[in-house]
Amino acid sequence: MTYDVQPASGQFFGATFAFPVRVYYEDTDAGGIVYYANYLRFAERARTEFIRALGCQQQQALEAEDKCGFTVRSCTVDYKLPAILDDALVVTCEMREAKGASAIMYQEIYRGETLLATVEVKVAYVDLGRKRPVRIPADLLNKLSCLQAVPGA
Description:
The protein has 153 residues and is α+β, with helices and mostly antiparallel strands.
């Protein structure tokens, strides 16, 4: 028997990408709330699907002769309210800046209309063999640049 089921993929609403996440038992701590580091996992999944939705196959870049990929340079998280077991969350992703070898993404995590956390992530595109930043491929950089959102707009 084969099952024709696809994983969650999210979608764009204008320049904002939205990705659904369910809170599972493994995401929570002994107090029954989402462990703080798991918000970063949720944000990473949304960023990965954001890039996939743009038509970029990151695995191909990792398997190429000059293995390249995005790495997190820094991130800032502002936790506002906790998520709990079984919550249905939406993680948004907006491109704030894309140039050369780096990009800045802004993300929000919601339960319904309630904002639970914000995440700002600075990523670098890196040649993983040489461990040096390299320019983001022109076609991807163009797509990212076209999606740049103005903060607060």
